[in-house]
Amino acid sequence: IHYPEKLIDTCLIQGPPSDGCHVVDWIYVVHRCLLQTQHRKSEIQIQCLETAQMIKSHQNVDLGFSYKQGQAQTNYYGAKITTGLDEGDIHGTCLLLWAISMLVDILEFDEPGWHIIRP
Q: What own/partner pairs with CB < 8 Å and gap ≥ 24 does 47-56 have?
């Protein structure tokens, strides 16, 4: 990754957006950058703890995650896939579990069984 320190600076200035893909993109960028540098690591860890709470707001009573808060994803590449009930959806659950696995690594939690998938 070219200029990981600059990417970290930009990510910390912007902060993670709250919707599915964007929060995962933010976490992915800081995670990959931290593999090359320890630049502002403690600030990233603080932001990641806050981000974990944001991700929790996407979790539903069925324990799945929805792409949008409180609503299952209704369309995928233009195809209607659900009616948008307040339940987890496969896209949100997959993305946000991937995000959690990266957060576990960034926060240096020793949690057996969590492995980061490659996109």
A: 47/12, 47/15, 47/16, 48/103, 48/106, 48/107, 49/107, 51/16, 51/23, 51/26, 51/27, 51/99, 51/103, 52/100, 52/103, 54/16, 54/18, 54/23, 55/23, 55/96, 55/99, 55/100, 55/103
